[in-house]
């Protein structure tokens, strides 16, 4: 069998440098030095006697030969990781570690049940969970810091796969005494927000853009605007004041009884919200990751369905 001129380390260097568009960021991603990454690319080009990368206007582009190496290299690395996973999967018990990311909208009602069910089938797996907004979580997936993330639907960029999970609806959340004309879990038009004090997430949250567009399109004039990035803090403030918030029904699930907070389904227009799972398409989706993702999907769909069914009774 002939000995290949291309090393796995060189392939990973090419893939990382191109995807990161930076030798320094690629070095950080691969836990290497910038000079080491440059040397890997240089050695690769010398052995193959072709250029694989070209710089143009502060951008790194693949040559025709570089594109072949990039596409085939991703497949090779993915196959190697899959082989390692198959060897590990020979054990009867799920083991290892798992790092996942979930947006705050789902941690309140989904995580406990999903984690409990997962631990019954994989008690030996060590789990690390990151709660952040979508932009930060997607960056962590790209960097390989987490195995997958659950985020609102939106652009995810190259090198990532997105899988649809469920569709939620945005709710108007207020304290139980506000909006006396509307009963808990009933429908309320977006215009109900006129002259109200509204809490919104920062621009790190993709939902902020949609909320601003709707307020502008429907000429909604709120009396005050408060930017707050803590969903649990938002929920508590709503319960104790005359501030209101637009939040997904998933995070409102714990308030189905309506004692402290009133949830109103926003209409005219309705505001749907899709959830997706994001993962790297060059990395093996390990068995523990698959099992945990299944539990999160199931629990997410379950609480959204429960919220919708309960709403129909009001």
Entry summary:
Helix content is 44%, strand content 24%. The chain is an alpha/beta fold and 314 residues long.
Could you please describe the fold and organization of this structure?
By secondary structure, the chain is of the alpha/beta class. The chain folds into three domains: 8-88, Arc Repressor Mutant, subunit A (Orthogonal Bundle); 97-166 and 275-312, D-Maltodextrin-Binding Protein, domain 2; 168-273, 3-Layer(aba) Sandwich (D-Maltodextrin-Binding Protein, domain 2). It is 44% helix and 24% strand. The protein is built from eleven helices and twelve strands. Strands 3, 4, 5, 6, 7, 8, 9, 10, 11 and 12 form a ten-stranded mixed beta sheet that branches. Helix 1 crosses helix 2, helix 1 (8-20) packs across helix 4 and helix 6 packs across helix 11 (287-312). The protein is elongated and about 80 Å long. The model has no long low-confidence stretch (mean pLDDT 90).
Task: Tag the structure with descriptive keywords.
D-Maltodextrin-Binding Protein, domain 2; 44% helix; two-stranded antiparallel sheet; Arc Repressor Mutant, subunit A; ten-stranded mixed β-sheet; 314 residues; 12 strands; 24% strand; alpha/beta
Radius of gyration (CA) equals 24 Å
Helical proportion, percent range:
40-55%
| Overall form | elongated
Distance between the termini: 72 Å
How is the CATH topology of the largest domain named? D-Maltodextrin-Binding Protein, domain 2
In the predicted model, the low-confidence regions spanning at least 5 consecutive residues are none
């Amino acid at each position: 069998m002939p000995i290949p001129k291309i090393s796995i380390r060189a392939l990973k260097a090419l893939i990382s440098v191109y995807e990161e568009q930076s030798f320094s960021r690629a070095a950080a991603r691969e836990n290497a030095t910038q000079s080491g990454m440059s040397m890997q690319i240089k050695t690769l080009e010398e052995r193959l006697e072709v250029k694989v990368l070209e710089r143009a206007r502060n951008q790194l582009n693949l040559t025709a030969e570089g594109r072949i190496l990039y596409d085939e290299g991703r497949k090779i690395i993915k196959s190697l990781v899959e082989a390692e996973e198959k060897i590990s999967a020979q054990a009867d018990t799920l083991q290892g570690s798992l790092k996942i990311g979930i947006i705050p909208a789902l941690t309140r009602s989904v995580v406990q049940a999903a984690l409990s069910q997962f631990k019954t089938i994989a008690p030996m797996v060590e789990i690390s969970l990151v709660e952040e907004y979508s932009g930060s979580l997607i960056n962590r997936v790209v960097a390989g810091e987490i195995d997958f993330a659950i985020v609102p639907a939106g652009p995810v960029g190259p090198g990532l796969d997105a899988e649809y999970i469920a569709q939620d609806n945005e709710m108007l959340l207020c304290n139980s005494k506000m909006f006396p004309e509307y009963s808990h879990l009933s429908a309320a038009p977006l215009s109900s927000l006129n002259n109200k004090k509204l809490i919104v997430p920062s621009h790190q949250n993709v939902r902020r853009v949609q909320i601003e567009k709707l307020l502008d399109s429907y000429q909604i004039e709120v009396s005050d605007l408060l930017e707050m990035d803590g969903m649990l803090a938002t929920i508590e403030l709503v319960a104790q004041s005359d501030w209101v918030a637009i939040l997904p029904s998933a995070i409102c699930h714990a308030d189905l009884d309506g004692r402290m907070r009133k949830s109103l389904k926003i209409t005219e227009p309705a505001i749907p919200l899709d959830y997706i799972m994001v993962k790297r398409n060059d990395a093996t989706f390990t068995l523990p990751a698959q099992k945990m993702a299944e539990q999160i999907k199931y629990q997410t769909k379950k609480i959204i369905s429960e919220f919708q069914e309960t709403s129909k009774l009001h």
